[in-house]
Amino acid sequence: MSEGPEVRRAADKIAEAILGRSVADLQCKFITSILKEKIIGSTVLSVDTYGKNIIIHFSSNVYLRNHMMMWGKWRIYSRTEYDSGKAKPPIRVKWKKDLNNNKLANVSNKIENVAVLSDTDLITNVQNDPRTRLALITDTHVIVQFNGPILQFSEDNPLQHESITRLGPDALKPGFDIKEAKKRLKERIEMKLVDLLLDQTFVAGIGNKYKSEILFLLKVWPFRLAKDLSLSEQEKLFQKIRGVLKTGYLNAGRTRPQQHGENGKWNFRHWVFRRAGRPCWICDTPIIMDRHSSSRVTFWCPCCQQ
Ligand SMILES: [Zn+2]
């Protein structure tokens, strides 16, 4: 799951490994030989994000845009580790049948039903992993993209492509354009809040986790229409969007502050997300998981969010 804050944290790690470094080699099936030749030997000038996109700019004026969708992952290895064949790929999970409803267990709420493959099924060398889509090699590090469905190389700046320009303002950017976001809200006034927040052309970077968390902290029923928000609730919505995404970015995806004596385990990290049936942190009412009122699952408190 890659939402704006997680994508930006991944970009930070990529930048730490390759920014300013020269590209020694690049392995990818989705690049023309001309662009590949241009990238090899060039320097990484910047690693930026917009919403859920990562944009890498090379000194040869070639750009890479990556969007991980739901299943992409980046991993960073030292060159020594990679060359020695000891660089391990991310663990693969397999979906288990949920015996209650005979459907594939959904990782979002049935995490206990997900099992990893046995040791014999695991590939231990990243270089042999068929999920690898890109390996970008410098003299010190290798960054590897797994499963990433969008790896777009171009000589035009992706920030000027329609894939990015159509997006709403990015709430994680220092200059988050609230005026523009308000204009876009007015154009989407008939949408349910749960759908509005996932609409990347409204505000870029919010995914399903942050959606539920933002609406909980806003204390509104998640399935209200945007037009039913008062002006003060609209103001508060933008504050929460910005605040919750920033909290997630600064705290490795955690949206609920760690309380004294609590550990960092998953169950404590969020207000409502993936907490179906557990007591609300504020009022003790069991959190609801709703799969039917919108296209994506929503977690909410029926007492705090009326
Ligand atoms: Zn509550």
Summary, kept brief:
25% of the residues lie in helices and 20% in strands. By secondary structure, it is α+β, with helices and mostly antiparallel strands.
Overall description:
The chain has helices at residues 4-18, 33-39, 79-83, 162-165, 178-187, 193-198, 208-218, 231-250; strands at residues 23-28, 44-50, 53-58, 63-67, 73-78, 93-94, 97-98, 103-104, 115-116, 132-138, 141-146, 150-154, 288-290, 298-300. The two termini are 28 Å apart. Strands 1-10-11-5 form a four-stranded antiparallel sheet. The protein has a four-stranded antiparallel sheet with strand order 2-3-4-12, with helices on one face. Strands 6-9 form a two-stranded antiparallel sheet. By secondary structure, the chain is of the alpha+beta class. The chain is built from eight helices and 14 strands. α1 packs parallel to α8 (231-250) and α7 (208-218) packs across α8 (231-250). Mean pLDDT is 90; it is low at 102-114. β13 (288-290) and β14 (298-300) form a beta hairpin. The chain folds into three domains: 4-87 and 129-165, Alpha-Beta Barrel (N-terminal domain of MutM-like DNA repair proteins); 90-123, no CATH class; 178-300, Helicase, Ruva Protein, domain 3 (Orthogonal Bundle). Zinc ion binds next to loops.
